[in-house]
Amino acid sequence: MKLNIIGFTVLSGVAFASPVEKRQGGGGDGPYGPGTYKTESNLQQHTIYMPSNAPADLKLPVLVWGNGGCGADGTGNAQFLQQVASYGYIAIASGGPGQQGGTTSAMMKQSIDWVTQQAGQGAYANVDASKIMASGFSCGGVEAMDQIWDSRVKTIGVVSSGLLQNQTAARSYTKPVIYILGGSGDIAYANGERDYNALPAGTPSWKGNINVGHGGTLFDQNGGRFGKAGLNWLQWVFRGDEQAKAYFTSGYQADGWQVQSKSLDKITAPLK
């Protein structure tokens, strides 16, 4: 199956919905979309994104997501998360739809615990909890990095973010990591650059910068170029998509990324 977007074609009060309510206005241009979101009574204060048109035999890898500012609105990055869902993933954002307040890395762990328990059952029968990526924007990226020691998490995504405390921790990272940064105008630029440079030489990693500032294109339709890189990473590491893989070796040039990478040849996809 050819996924044309992948690679080179340009392509805050708490309110909870019914456990089975799918929201209108879904987005994403993937083959299993639109991506929609809902809540579950046994995972309150989280927002769950699902494909609306996935065949029963399609396995759905998992993305757990932390919002910018560690904010509790689980729809804060809906453009990107609906796009991910439309390509056949379940994405779980910390915080409920429109919720105010803050989140913690413990809430992201709750997402991981929950999806691990639900996978293979009922509405989540086709969820593949052996393939989990933790990612997030800004403060949410720090929450994601807190999950790197969890054996259930196979890869980490850091979007306009970098460590705020324990700033030498990246020296011990061994799992694949993708850094998506907004150039020198991104307030997290120095932190992200420092952490990437601290990674061991053998840790598979890719760092892309475009000069679009903090959060970059994440709020554009489908997440823009930031979202494209994040989706390609998922498609490569969890589905072994060769066109997505090629994006990280040369295809990124069409999108204007300034790139450094380490040991990408050590990624054996799909990650297990």
Average pLDDT over all residues = 91
Question: CATH H-level name... which superfamily?
Answer: Alpha/Beta hydrolase fold, catalytic domain
The quaternary structure here is: single chain
Per DSSP, the total helix count is 6
> So what's the overall shape?
globular
Strand order of the largest sheet: 1-2-4-3-5-6-7-8-9
Helix content: 10-25%
The CATH class assignment is: Alpha Beta
The SSE order reads EEEHEHEHEEHEHHE
Count up the domains: 1
**Rg calc:** 17 Å
Structural class: alpha/beta
Q: What portion of the residues fall into strands of 2 or more residues?
A: 15-25%
Which tags fit this structure?
272 residues; alpha/beta; Rossmann fold; 9-stranded mixed β-sheet; 6 helices; 9 strands; disordered N terminus; signal; AB_hydrolase_fold
